[in-house]
Amino acid sequence: MSAPGSVYKRCGCREAGSRRQLGRHCPKLARRGHGSWYFSLPTGQGRPLRRGGYTTRDQARAALHELRARTIASEGLTVGQWMEQWLTGRTNLRASTRRNYRSHLDLHLLPALGDIRLAELDTARIQAAFDQLAAPGPGGTSAVSPVGLHRVRAALRTILNAAVRAGLLEQNPARQVCLTPTTRPHPVVWTDERVRKWERTGIRPAVAVWTAEQTAQFLTSIGDHCLYAAFHVIALRGLRRGEATGLRWSDLDLTAGLLTISRQVQYQDGRLVTCPPKSRASNRTIALDPDTIEVLRAHRTRQNAEKMLARESWRETGHVFTRPDGTLLSPEVLTQLMRELNDAACLPPIRLHDLRHGAATLALAAGADLKVVRDMLGHSSIVLTADTYTSVLPQVAHQAAADTAALIRAAGSLVPGTRRRRQPDYPRPPKADPLQQARAA
Q1: Is residue 403 part of a domain?
Q2: Nearest Cα to 244, choosing from 228, 257, 255, 220?
Q3: Any idea what the CATH number is for the domain that residue 91 is in?
Q4: What is the pLDDT of residues 66-109, one digit of tens each?
Q5: The whole model's pTM is what?
Q6: Residue 431 lies in a domain
Q7: Which of 88, 225, 284, 413 is buried most deeply by CB count within 10 Å?
């Protein structure tokens, strides 16, 4: 530290004319209880670090001494050491979130920035590191995708924000890092034209969904599969794969036609575990249609038969979709099966998660309200639902356009092939006779 720092008093009073804050120059500061105490600590990075709102001078001095001691002790702290210290101290992180942070640190942030002293970290060094991550490699593609770069930067900003709160940095240097803007890929429908282009060129959309006919063809082709019910529920009710494998019979009320999502199955530390859903909004209850209820009842009959066949080797977990011995089913199994069954059905390719997208698109096409679709999917915001599912089935879009034109025609404002004048709301005076006007003159 270039200086030990100082404490001072200031208030929020303003000048009568200019309304400018008086701050440290208010004449009332000598009064007891007027204003509050602040401290200023030089950082060597430009503007000093200031904190305030203390009731007494002693409180401000104690806070200054504590921050000064912590800063001096951390003068040799590297970015990598702070990252490890921060991640170790975050004991309340979800397992998947911790795994993502660990991956960002090990693969990108520690190799690029870990050896830099935290006190010397600035925007220019961070920008250079991200430019290097985005640079094309030997194969012509960058090591990290544009979406991946934004996720890495978000992780870095979170970690450095904690350093600012701890008084180790005056401001977050990652805030000014510039990255290539990205857009969320919106689902598009496998129309006949897109299918022909894919068959001709092999190029496929990033996110694509089947039409109602294609979805029906897929479900018909896998009707005899032991996990048919899982794909049926995902395709019609939009469950995530971990939610489907985490579903228990106790979560189903087939009499009332309700399905409750209260947990999911994930891989953690190399083993399958059950854990809470992705977010608070993911805890939800979904209405079931009569067809899905019958599919689930048939699946329960099939599972009971498997249980009788397995006898002592069956492990009762209470889950709806399991392995042949009753143990937890990995979500990855559904993903792999989806690829195989998709190819066998001779349909344009989609991912397992695209069945969830398709469920939302088909629900909107069937006339479901956007809020109903949001609740079905477990989104936290209707904005996310609207932003993701702006695409609709082509025939629905054409029908909406035709319905709009029909509404206008019915109102009489637009008649094909003619143009009608709008009648005035008040009576017009009769036209004068020219002959009468001449006689009057």
Answers
A1: no
A2: 228
A3: 1.10.150.130
A4: 777 666 555 678 999 999 999 998 888 888 888 899 999 999 99
A5: 0.69
A6: no
A7: 284
